[in-house]
């Protein structure tokens, strides 16, 4: 109890703590140097822009996952939600350009709705979020198979695909700026602003100690439910970008939930909640993607990716556990 | 307490990472036939059988018997077998145990089969279809159930070869004519086994085209769906032989899981790592469009590439003027088992094995296969345009 009282504003404190963004920025800098040594062309504006555009979906998913994790929960359903959204979009659009915008709205609403269901089941029925969202994961996978008879139907219009595939061309200095990167920058700014608002502080307080937060007047259940809805919304935007990038497929979102969670952990956010920043989570995703790119440049097999992700999760949690016990 | 829970959660996460992403791991091969020195493609697949390879390549040039406009009734190197003991008065009840319907190829094929049944409606009183949903155990039970339903003939498309063999043997012992198609079984008790030439032919056609059309000594990227599946391993092993013979530089052999996003990333990575890629070979066409898009998005010309007969690739080939070829594993083979079953029940001779021709789509005949009104995942080589319900049934 005393411990909590001495930390009335966790976000600010976490930013100045040694465990803030500095270690991550150092890793990012080292990776950039290694990339520059191995493949200097990669840092040319054109390929750097395309890298950032490609990484936008996982960075957004990391931001969404951050809201849930910092409030003390998990969201394992985002990967299958992305797959479901891409398959649904293809079927609804059915290659008809005029349906693009209505379907985009349907997807965003659908993402929020899935988040709402996750949140209500977790907070009202008191099912642990690990189980809730694992259940949602399985339900979505099964529903998509059932609805599509095992093979995706329809097709995405070029208008829909441009968000994830096209770019502002002929920009001075940078060459081209992918739409996905613009979407990312806007939403990342909003996410940072949101975490600086009252809602952001309450969210972190809820994750730090739900009981204390409740006693000081925070509506814990509602706050956590909103966190799940934000994660669902992030998944919907990611689905639009991924569907645009690569077209319709049953593998569109496979494994993304673990990518997002790894990124969040790498970004210095404590599993269990209450510590870490959304900027850290997004930088964590960027660092992870850069690490995979570097592995590619050094000819390391892509099959090692899950191993690397697993090692990062274990390492990061071990470090944070040590840090919190030695405090 | 909370830290403890977080650590437990992390452990669970790590264990889940392994099962959910399902990355393929390269299968170690025995290197039964050592590749020539200097070959850049590594050891030969353990699935490679020289005699089968030689046989399939010979079949590519063989002249089929049967009506030229109906390749699904044609046979390569026929070996006729007597079926008089199965002769029976119609109309017949035909039963079909299907491995799965879980990909567009099987969907198109099954619709074609249903249409063939409809076309033969006056001779078939009932058509029973059971979907095993890709599970061996379910298919074994399905076949067992069908044996108690007084079928006049049983068609089986086995999920896996070895596991389904005892079930098929049991069906043969029950005395009704059994017809196996697509994937095989390890017994010759079925009346006939129907399939096209096969994987070696497919892989060879694509690899030969790519290595001939690209600049000499150029860099080839080989994209495979996943390791360890016989039909796909044979495709790659034949391509490997062709590439080694042509002495092209195979800079990478990667697994895509059939995922377009992963394919695009892999191709993009190779373009960045090597500057240019001069040829792309694929063991299946599902992600060919994604590979082409990766070159377009990188602002590079698309090198010689092979796909398959899916319409999204054919359309892109035509629209973008690609240097491309499409070997096929034709879906029209789903018509043949129905035709074979009726012939067997008439007591007519059929060929065992029934090897179907395996046409290749080239620049010259592209237009005759490209129907812009069909959906992007439709397979052009369905042989279904003369069947009832075309085109609506396949949309």
From TrEMBL, chain A:
The chain crosses the membrane at residues 21-39, 51-69, 99-120, 127-147, 177-195, 226-246, 252-271, 278-297, 303-321. The keyword Cytoplasm does not apply. Keywords: Cell inner membrane, Cell membrane, Membrane, Transmembrane, Transmembrane helix, Transport. Its main location: membrane. One of its GO terms (cellular component) is plasma membrane. The keyword Lyase does not apply. InterPro entries: ABC_transp_permease. One of its GO terms (molecular function) is transmembrane transporter activity. It comes from the Bacteria. It is found in: Cell membrane. It is a multi-pass membrane protein. This is Autoinducer 2 import system permease protein LsrD. It comes from Verrucosispora sioxanthis.
